[in-house]
Amino acid sequence: MTTALDDFGTGYASLVHLKKFPVDTLKIDWSFVLALxxxxxxxxxxxxxxxxxxxxxxxxTEGIETYAQADPLHYEGCDHGQGYPFSRAIAAEQVPLIxxxxxxxxxxxxxxxxxxxxxxxxxxxxxxxxxxxSA
Length: 135
Fold this sequence. Notes:
alpha/beta; Cyclic-di-GMP_PDE-like; 2 domains
């Protein structure tokens, strides 16, 4: 199980939580993405990403709406992005269809390892349950 600290940099998602909880992922709040033209916001994102790297914590930026926003975040070293360029919000039953549309080197029934295995096997179960012909 992993723990993510959501909306990092705003409200209650503060530095004290990094000491208090076993955090694996920092999710950088979308408000910093909206104003990336502002050097101050770029500096804040850079600081959060560097903090994550120094502590061995994965960084995810939320609310990316364009590839133009994703590029500087990637340049600053953010591990992952979340937003419309990657996928719009989808229903749970669509997840397996999307996973199966990517060439991830896995075929149904094949064993995988780690968290990938759990995700892919769950998605495959969902896919077969939602696409199986009714009797």
